């Protein structure tokens, strides 16, 4: 095993053994070391760089190395580019302090394949208290780590689904509470159209696996049914995160419906121009909705329920600002949405009335 004297080394007594087994315990220990399915090595602590002096069959099978490629080498040959320096430092400190170490470390097989190693190191001292060897056992926990990662991913997915559900339910709740309830038939129709607008946005998100969606695509989806040939769209390719898509889709639906019923799209020569650009410092989103051909509205014009819903979506759901101005030619709406904001799916929306 080694040229060093082992007269001062005595192994630990078995926790349970018969007289017969006790007589053969050294040989049985050697058999157990070799035949166990747990990879094990022993390094010589009295030789510089702690070379491996014993390695069992399971260790060779796990790592893919032959016996001659292992003996005389420090175990660091199992480390690679993605091995954590923190884990390595923990191992070194434990060896230096002559104490037991338990650490999970990313190691590499001879083939280059990675595996997660639950490493246990234990110093072996002689009768005089001097450290003689370092015993190491390994457990391949790669599969366990994979399952753990899948469970964590599933947990994050469930939380995300929960957040999205709360967000959509808050929007639907605002639709129900803010829609005109004076006429039951009109009330049902207005809710139905708004829910359909949300459903179209939901389908778009589902097609893209709930990733970001371009602003132009959202606008065109909601506006095109009302203004196929009388609307122009211009702006850079800005993509919105999934939680912003449905609130903004409902905003454009309401603006388009209002334009079709009372604004530029309700008159023969009216036109609609929609543009967008990043906010200050290249963050957030600024949207400009310009209707031309409607003239100045009468002084008695009321704030409709669609306007209330637009305000609720922009100010509460998207935590932005909206400005409406009437010029000589028609309505101008400016919407500003900040980039950094906290989720607002649980914020009340009815105060926007």
From TrEMBL:
Residue span(s) of domain PAC: 99-153
Record's keyword terms, sorted: ATP-binding, Chromophore, Flavoprotein, FMN, Kinase, Nucleotide-binding, Phosphoprotein, Photoreceptor protein, Receptor, Repeat, Sensory transduction, Transferase, Virulence
Stored InterPro entries: HATPase_C_sf (IPR036890), PAC (IPR001610), PAS (IPR000014), PAS-assoc_C (IPR000700), PAS-like_dom_sf (IPR035965), Sig_transdc_His_kinase_HWE (IPR011102)
Cross-referenced Pfam families: HWE_HK (PF07536), PAS_9 (PF13426)
Residues annotated as transmembrane: none
Region (Disordered) residue spans: 1-20
CDD domains in the record: PAS
EC identifiers of the protein: 2.7.13.3
Classification via PROSITE patterns: PAC, PAS
Gene Ontology molecular function, alphabetical: ATP binding; photoreceptor activity; protein histidine kinase activity
Domain (PAS): residue spans on this chain: 25-74
Keyword presence, Phosphoprotein: yes
Top EC class, one word: transferase
Catalytic activity: ATP + protein L-histidine = ADP + protein N-phospho-L-histidine
PANTHER family recorded: ETHYLENE RESPONSE SENSOR PROTEIN, TWO-COMPONENT SYSTEM SENSOR PROTEIN
Full protein name: Blue-light-activated histidine kinase
């Amino acid at each position: 095993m080694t040229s060093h004297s082992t007269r001062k080394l005595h192994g630990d007594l078995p926790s349970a053994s018969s007289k017969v087994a006790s007589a053969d315990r050294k040989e049985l220990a050697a058999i157990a070391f070799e035949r166990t399915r747990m990879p094990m090595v022993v390094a010589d602590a009295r030789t510089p760089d702690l070379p491996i002096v014993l390695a069992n069959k399971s260790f060779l099978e796990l790592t893919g190395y032959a016996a001659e490629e292992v003996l005389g080498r420090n175990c660091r040959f199992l480390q690679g580019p993605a091995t954590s320096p923190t884990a390595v430092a923990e191992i070194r400190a434990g060896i230096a302090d002559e104490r037991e170490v338990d650490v999970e470390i990313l190691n590499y097989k001879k083939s280059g394949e990675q595996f997660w190693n639950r490493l246990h190191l234990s110093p072996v001292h002689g009768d005089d208290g001097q450290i003689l060897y370092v015993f190491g056992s390994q457990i391949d926990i790669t599969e366990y780590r994979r399952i753990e990662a899948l469970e964590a991913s599933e947990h994050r997915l469930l939380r995300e689904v929960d957040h999205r559900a709360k967000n959509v339910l808050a929007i639907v709740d605002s639709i129900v509470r803010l829609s005109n309830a004076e006429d039951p038939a009109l009330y049902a129709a207005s809710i139905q159209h708004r829910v359909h607008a949300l459903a179209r946005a939901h389908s778009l998100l589902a097609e893209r696996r709930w990733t970001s969606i371009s602003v132009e695509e959202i606008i065109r989806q909601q506006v095109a049914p009302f203004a196929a040939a009388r609307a122009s769209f211009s702006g850079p390719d800005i993509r919105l995160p999934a939680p912003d898509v449905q609130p903004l889709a409902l905003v454009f639906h309401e603006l388009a419906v209002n334009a079709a019923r009372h604004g530029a799209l309700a008159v023969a020569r009216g036109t609609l121009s929609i543009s967008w650009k990043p906010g200050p410092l290249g963050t957030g989103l600024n949207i400009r909705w310009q209707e031309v051909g409607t003239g100045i509205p009468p002084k008695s014009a009321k704030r409709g329920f669609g306007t209330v819903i637009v305000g609720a979506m922009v100010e509460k759901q998207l935590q932005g600002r909206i400005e409406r101005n009437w010029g000589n030619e028609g309505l101008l709406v400016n919407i500003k949405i900040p980039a950094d904001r906290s989720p607002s799916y649980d914020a009340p929306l009815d105060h926007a009335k």
